[in-house]
Design brief:
alpha/beta, Rossmann fold, 2 domains
């Protein structure tokens, strides 16, 4: 059940909780867990990633040296995720030097492992989760409370954006230490535009505006459609995301569908999505409540010309490699600027975008930062590390 005890000089024994499992098939947390866990194993550490199971008693499996521990997710409706996280924390109550919980939905349960069992427990807060429109009023109240609890229950809070870490320190000055380590991204090879096969979507390379986003108000898809209409350029707006007529917001989006505003659904094949990014004339990023957003990083890594919603999180990541907007008219102005760029100007923007990712967001760099903090924490030296 538990891993063998660590010996002096041996790698750390770390459990990563709060994911559906790896290899990644859904969401940013799963991608993060896979990238970090595999690299830590390559550096000599013993890493376990907890994974959801549909029934109890499934044996452990292995993925590139990472132990996958299967825990049944209860069928409790909206509370299922919280129940699953609690079961994982209970299962991980011995045999590890450090527990790393992704997400604060079950922040209160971390107190048990930390205070009663004496374990080191980290918690990744993942942006302003309570501000997402998909949550009802009771869920928002619970998540806001869990944000406060997350400043007390674990040993340390991790934020993937400096703006989130600064906010925690400001709002919860007496809370546990909060450290900033960003999310990461890979740099794909850049083929010539003609190499992009976009025929399945009837698109021409360099002649469409791309949006990759869940259909939620905080991602400003309606504002993007308005700004695109105001611009009036020839490039169609292509929205990647599972838009179904379920919520009033989604119904408003679908009512605007046309040849100029195309909803092509979710694209879950990484190669196809990378091809769509690389073929775009512009990538518009409307996210506003996250930290270091994976979609923005991947757009920069692909060398996209990016126009991003103007907020501290996006500015922290894209820096001077993007134009910014808050209103439809501002987006229209930015799109006009993008469409007028010459080929050398586009190349300069792409080089700057990819340079930012290479310098600040490579997965190897992120892993080194995590490894250093983990070693310091487990050696009792992390009081001021990476804060």
């Amino acid at each position: 059940m538990s891993l063998p005890p660590a010996t002096a000089g041996a790698g750390l024994r770390v459990a990563i909780l709060g994911t559906r499992g790896i290899p990644a098939g859904y969401g940013g947390f799963e991608t993060f867990a896979e990238q970090l866990a595999v690299r830590l194993v390559q550096r000599g550490h013993q890493i376990t990633v907890y994974a959801e199971a549909d029934r109890p008693g499934l044996p452990d499996t292995w993925y590139q040296g990472v132990r996958i521990r299967h825990v049944q997710r209860p069928r409790w409706g909206a509370a299922s995720v919280i129940g699953y996280d609690c079961r994982c924390l209970r299962d991980a109550r011995q045999g590890y030097d450090l527990l790393y919980m992704l997400g604060y939905g079950a922040a209160w349960a971390c107190w048990w492992n930390r205070s009663l069992l004496g374990q080191r427990v980290w918690l990744n807060v993942d942006g302003l989760e309570w501000a997402r429109s998909k949550w009802g009023s009771l869920a928002r109240l619970y998540l806001r409370a869990m944000e406060w609890v997350s400043s007390r229950a674990p040993t340390r809070v991790l934020a993937d954006a400096q703006a989130i870490a600064d906010r925690y320190t400001r709002i919860y000055p007496r809370g546990v230490p909060c450290s900033f380590i960003a999310y990461g991204a890979d740099l794909p090879e850049i083929p010539p535009p003609a190499a992009q096969d976009l025929s399945r979507w009837n698109l021409q390379a360099g002649e469409y505006v791309l949006v990759v986003a869940r259909p939620e108000p905080e991602n400003h898809v309606l504002d993007i459609i308005e700004g695109h209409a105001r611009w009036g350029g020839d490039w169609p707006l292509v929205v990647v995301g599972d838009v179904r007529p379920v919520t009033p917001y989604q119904k408003r989006l679908l009512a605007l569908a046309s040849d100029r505003v195309r909803f092509i659904g979710g694209v879950y094949d990484p190669g196809l999505l990378t091809g769509l990014r690389m073929g775009a004339g512009c990538h518009v990023h409307g996210h506003s409540v996250g930290g270091t957003n994976p979609s923005l990083l991947e757009a920069l890594a692909c060398g996209n010309v990016v126009v991003a919603h103007d907020n501290p999180f996006n500015r922290e990541v894209a820096r001077d490699a993007a134009r910014y907007f808050q209103t439809g008219p501002q987006l229209a102005e930015a799109l006009a600027w993008v469409s007028a760029l010459t080929a050398p100007q586009r190349q300069a923007v792409a080089s700057r975008a990819r340079g930012i990712v290479a310098q600040h967001y490579s997965w190897d760099l992120i892993t080194t930062q995590y490894e250093s903090l983990m070693r310091a924490e487990c050696a009792g030296l992390a009081a001021g590390a990476l804060q």
